[in-house]
Amino acid sequence: MELITIRELYREKEKFIGKEITVGGWVRSIRDSKAFGFIVLHDGTYFETLQIVYHDTMENFAEVSKLNVGSALIIKGELVATPDAKQPFEIQAVSIEIEGASQADYPLQKKRHSLEFLRTISHLRPRTNTFQAVFRVRSLIAYAIHKYFQDRDFVYVHTPLITGSDAEGAGEMFQVTTLDLEKIPFTPEGKVDFKEDFFGKATNLTVSGQLNGETYAMAFRNIYTFGPTFRAENSNTTRHAAEFWMIEPEIAFADLKDDMALAEGMIKFVIRYVLENAPEEMKFFNEFVDKGLLERLTHVMNSDFGHVTYTEAIELLEKNNDKFEYKVSWGSDLQTEHERYLTEEIYKKPVFVTDYPKDIKAFYMKLNEDNKTVAAMDLLVPGIGEIIGGSQREDDYDKLTARMDELGLKKEDYDFYLDLRRYGSARHAGFGLGFERCVMYLTGMGNIRDVVPFPRTVNNCEL
Ligand code: 4AD
What we know:
Strand content: 15-25%
Helix content: 25-40%
CATH class of the largest domain: Alpha Beta
Distance between the termini: 31 Å
Radius of gyration: 27 Å
Strand order of the largest sheet: 6-10-11-16-15-14-13-12
Number of strands: 16
Shape: elongated
Number of domains: 2
Largest sheet: 8 strands, mixed
CATH architecture of the largest domain: 2-Layer Sandwich
Bound molecules: 4-amino-1,4-dioxobutan-2-aminium adenosine-5'-monophosphate
Order of helices and strands: HHEEEHEEHHEEEEHEEHHHEHHEEEHHEH
């Protein structure tokens, strides 16, 4: 069946005015008087809705008038210009076919529902304006990220989701097993015997594709990954999900400066892409979700990001320790409150914090000459805090293995990774962008649960 979309109608109005067309969609609202009625139809292809006028000359007039919000319809009729109305055109229906009537207890009504309520119906919330905007923009951001890297000849690498190593060394993994939990086999030492398991060893869902990505960077030079990532982090916050998507570029013959330039270029490119390609949705966010969003993003696109070392950042934060729940001093990890203070109060724009103490960062980061800090960077943005974490990698075999020993990591679990340092090691760097945090930043949505179609967080795995 050839259905014309509302998006096409807005794009090529002249082509369709005065013509008979067929459209399909869901009822947003419906009202009737004796001889005629109005339906506001939404078809999911565009932010705008379409008004349908229908008359009692239609044989199923009474049946249509009884329809509830949410019903799925196919409508044939003439598209007429309505220069004096709010909408530029409407359809004078000739026929209305009821594909599927909606029951009277349809949970979405014309009023504004709270985001909390909508979270309880994640299968229906994409039919609301807010989630139409969120998930269309999420889709565009994903495309823009691919475009940014593909335009620069980066190779997209699909890293595995099931792995045998902990890329971050933080132990926040979901175990993968086919063992019968009722009859777990144990070794004589009392440990679970994974030899009996599917892979013959302990495995888990990936926390990052970085280590695999590095191997491809040592073959293709510039690569990126874009895929699901899993963390069994017991953080019940508005920015943590157990399942999220991450983009991890890795660049060879490159240092931390190159890495930051790549990240800054990517963020600016994606902002521009979304402002140009989803103007209605972005206007909607600016009006209903986060006033000032458009001004802020435009400013970010046109100015340089800030740079500060961790040591300098701590000095700045220490002066304001009275404002924080967690007091900072050199060596402490930055909490969201500190990150937000730096980017919102001090810099008032995105800022890279670099050169963190080695003890609060992952084992693979390149040791600086001071032997205390590593060539790491986090990108902090107003409203969220950290959206990117990255570093130059330790490419020296001896230094890397020494660090692994210090941390008690088993070298045999990382054989492939250490090989890279044996066979033509080269300077390289990369970062991970949390996709959902990027979507939050670009839409102004305040909770990660509202930018993931079906969120997985602590105690929540519905649908
Ligand atoms: O800083 P992280 O842990 O870095 C890595 O995983 C590196 N392997 C990246 C690399 O250098 N290739 O995570 C990177 C980003 C964070 O900045 C954050 O945006 C996001 O991933 N992230 C999460 N997003 C949602 N929920 C969580 N639980 C997240 N944990 C990290």
